[in-house]
Amino acid sequence: MYKISVKSFFSAAHFLKNYRGKCENLHGHNWEVTATISGENLKNGLLMDFSALKRILKSLLARFDHKSLNELKEFKKINTTSENIARVIFLELKKQLPENVSLEEVAVSETPTNRASYSE
């Protein structure tokens, strides 16, 4: 099994609902998103071109960039935790990938020391 990963970034604000603590207040992060795909077959020695995967991920993240995440339709019914953000990105990214690869994981870091991931 071959695996490759790419990273991209977005900046956004959010607040946690039904939470006691400083994160219940509106605040922002420079989010780092890592997407990992896998597959068994290479084409010209590549599972997928890094640039193509990064382009898809960047395009998807553009709708979150410099937004208040709580106001986006994806988060109207769920909390804007890193766990939920990772899941939302995973499910959308999965739809946009070629059939010959599988999306293994999407990891979201809101700080250099805090990371959440989602996989199926």
Plain-language structure description:
The protein has 120 residues and is an alpha+beta fold. It has a single domain (2-118), classed as 6-pyruvoyl tetrahydropterin synthase/QueD (Tetrahydropterin Synthase, Chain A). It is built from two helices and five strands. It has a five-stranded mixed β-sheet with strand order 3-1-2-4-5. Helix 1 crosses helix 2. It is elongated.
Tally of discrete structural domains:
1
- Report the portion of residues in β strands: 35-45%
Secondary-structure element order, as H and E? EEHEHEE
Q: What's the arrangement of strands in the largest beta sheet?
A: 3-1-2-4-5
Query: Mean of residue pLDDT?
Result: 96
| Overall geometry | elongated
Properties at a glance:
120 residues; alpha+beta; Tetrahydropterin Synthase, Chain A; 2 helices; 5 strands
Could you outline the blueprint of secondary structure elements for this entry?
Layout: E1 2-14, E2 27-39, H1 50-61, E3 67-68, H2 82-96, E4 102-111, E5 114-118
Parallel strand pairs: 1-3
Antiparallel strand pairs: 1-2, 2-4, 4-5
